[in-house]
Design goal:
Distance between the termini: 20 Å
Strand content: 25-35%
Structural class: alpha+beta
Largest sheet: 7 strands, mixed
Strand order of the largest sheet: 2-1-7-6-5-4-3
Number of strands: 7
Helix content: 25-40%
Number of helices: 6
Length: 129
């Protein structure tokens, strides 16, 4: 969480993780990989509406968390899948050096990779999945 708290572009995500009680788990558990939507990603889907529905927000956020470390270089080229904390699979596509992620609710492009925290990795994404 310290890494996210130091990133101005993830302030909405920090707030969302805090109000859904997921922040404490991310601080003490691990390893994790977090596909972290930026503030702009939350604005696209309606930041205030999303933050007001805590139960729904928690379900959404769990689609962004994997209980394993996934550095970008360990993701195979082509298409692969990873288990998420939501008990869903996230499809990851690596094509021409770009990484995209696909959940049951949407798709996003990874805009920044491999921000290392003490217990995991953060990859920034451009949309909420």
């Amino acid at each position: 969480m310290a890494l996210l708290k130091s990133s101005p572009e993830h302030s909405v995500l920090v707030r969302a993780l805090t109000i859904t009680d997921l922040a404490a788990s991310l601080e003490t558990g691990g390893p994790f990989t977090l596909f972290a939507p930026t503030n702009q990603a939350f604005d696209i889907v309606g930041r205030d509406k999303m933050l007001s529905d805590v139960a729904g927000l928690r379900k959404v956020l769990l689609r962004h968390i994997s209980r394993q470390k996934l550095p970008s270089l360990s993701i195979p080229g082509g298409v692969s899948q990873v288990d998420m904390a939501s008990n869903e699979k996230l499809t990851i596509a690596v094509l021409s050096g770009r990484i995209a992620v696909y959940s049951s609710r949407g798709a996003a492009e990874v805009t920044a990779t491999d921000s290392y925290a003490s217990n995991g990795i953060v990859h920034s994404i451009d949309l909420v999945i």
